[in-house]
Amino acid sequence: VKGEYQPRFFDLQTYLNYNLGPNAQLNCLINWNYSQFHLIPESSTVGKGNFLQVLRLNTVYFGSEDDLFDQKMAGLSFTYFPQKEKYHTL
Length: 90
Known about the structure:
This protein has one domain (2-89). The chain is built from no helices and five strands. The chain has strands spanning 2-21, 24-49, 54-60, 65-80, 88-89.
């Protein structure tokens, strides 16, 4: 599709680690994605067939398309170390 594409996006990711003491640890993973997409299509051409006959479809568009995606995610874990070699995570 030929046309004018105008994408805008923002992505933030972080991983936080906090020691609660010598035997415990708290971890947090955060992700935020904001995407905005604006399309003003002009035309498209599609051809189908074989080497004997090809059918072509020419399309002209009017209008525009706006898409918006706002996604957030967070995860939290707690790790307990009863001994240096052994640990348990929730």
